[in-house]
Write a structure and sequence with these properties.
Blueprint lengths: L1 E2 L8 E2 L9 H27 L4 H29 L1 E4 L3 E6 L5 E6 L3 E7 L2 H6 L1 E8 L6 E7 H17 L6
Antiparallel strand pairs: 1-2, 3-4, 4-5, 6-7, 7-8
Helix pairs in contact: 1-2
Amino acid sequence: MTSLEGEGIAVRLRPPNNRLDQRAVRWWRTQSLIVTAGGTAVLAVPGLLIAPARGWLLAAAAVVAVLGLAEAAVFPGWRFRVHRWEITDQAVYVRTGAFQQQWRIAPMSRIQTVDTRRGPLERAFGLATVTVTTASSKGEIEIEGLDHELAARLAERLTVITQATPGDAT
């Protein structure tokens, strides 16, 4: 654990405690399979219809299908093991990434807006994404793969905490 208190920042750098909802794995896997099916179809349909290009288009479709299926089998579980989040009275902590991990910390005094999002596929899995917009050039922080009721409670809690937190003078 590292602290930046000597630099006027009272946020402790540490791994976030909370995992995403287990349904996020199926949600990510479904997203991957949809993209794979679309990419495979874009190559396979013309391959079936255009005789001179049939060989290379169907071979490319097979490669896309195999790579997409491998990605859908491996990466959602890996992402689930890496992704973490936590909200304290001082900050929002998020760790994401598979190959390149990214840790983001947003002090409450820097939060500008809190939103929840539920796309059609997220709704089908009972999930939601909480988006925290900050006064940072890095942009927003997303906590995706949350139970939709938990996401609503987090958005409410963040709103209450940020309203009670004095703004940052920097």
